[in-house]
Specification:
Elements lengths: L1 H27 L6 H26 L4 H28 L3 H14 L3 H28 L5 H19 L7 H29 L22 H10 L7 H25 L5
Length: 269
């Protein structure tokens, strides 16, 4: 439940921010004729996201055995790549809001509503595709739930409404920092679990079956263990490959963070 809530909360809020920024720009420049186009773009993006998710489930939902293991592993690594790309994009974008406004400005200046429609629908579709991939990966680990996804959507819409109303208690930077850190840990868990799927499919060797066993301390089926497993892919008896995958992703993420901090933050390095 928690993984689903975090995923949908983050993705829906990102899409909502794009819509909010564009609507604010149109209101400030008194270009109200494009407001309906914005909402049309939201509708198109959501509809395409749902269709792609259904198509995705139809094409790959019937797999079983070794093929299912391999597919689930590939899907988890795909989600890991999406998360990593998201982190890089956030760090390398100097001013996300300014970039969105510039795109909206160019579209509005051209006198065509198609540009606004494409900007909004593409933004919503991108987040929708990422959500579908993340939830599919979470589902493969047994950590996805409809109630969690709906909770995340609801919280994202409430937060977006607060932004629109200018709520001072909302700190967008803190929001992105916290959710990004949680997604990085989630990605590390997905990396570990993907390697487990490949092990069970017979593609790779575990090298050492169980590096340690702390399941007596934190049982994966218990409340705390289940929470850790849902969010971070916890297992009390990891193989060397699983543990190596988890720690390697965290190390690479930290090195990537140091590199981006040195390269993109003024005064650092």
């Amino acid at each position: 439940m928690f993984a689903s809530a975090i995923i949908t909360f983050r993705e829906v809020f990102e899409a909502a921010l794009v819509v909010i920024i564009v609507l604010a720009y149109l209101k400030r420049t008194e270009q109200f004729t494009y407001v309906k186009t914005v909402w049309a773009g939201v509708g198109v993006g959501v509809a395409l996201s749902v269709l792609l998710a259904l198509l995705f489930d139809t094409l790959f939902g019937g797999l079983s055995g070794k093929g299912e293991k391999i597919f689930e592993g590939v899907m988890m690594l795909t989600a890991v790549l999406f998360i990593t790309w998201m982190v890089v994009w956030i760090f390398t974008s100097k001013n996300v809001s300014r970039e969105i406004v510039d795109k909206a400005s160019r579209a509005a200046t051209s006198g065509s509503s198609i540009g606004i429609l494409l900007l909004i629908s593409t933004a919503v579709l991108r987040e929708g595709v990422e959500t579908a991939v993340f939830l599919q990966a979470a589902s493969s680990t047994g950590s996805a739930s409809l109630s969690g996804a709906l909770l995340g959507v609801s919280l994202a819409l409430v937060l977006a409404y607060g932004v629109v109303k200018g709520a001072r208690w909302i700190d967008i930077k803190t929001f992105f920092r916290v959710t990004t850190a949680m997604l990085v840990l989630f990605a590390a868990g997905l990396t570990s679990h993907a390697l487990l799927e490949f092990q069970e499919a017979g593609l790779i060797s575990p090298v050492i079956e169980h590096v340690y066993d702390i399941s007596w301390l934190i049982d994966k089926s218990g409340t705390l263990g289940s929470l850790f497993n849902t969010l971070f892919g916890y297992t009390g008896r990891p193989s060397l490959v699983e543990l190596g995958g988890f720690l390697s992703y965290l190390l690479l993420s930290y090195l990537l963070y140091l590199f981006m901090r040195r390269s993109y933050i003024p005064g650092k390095g």
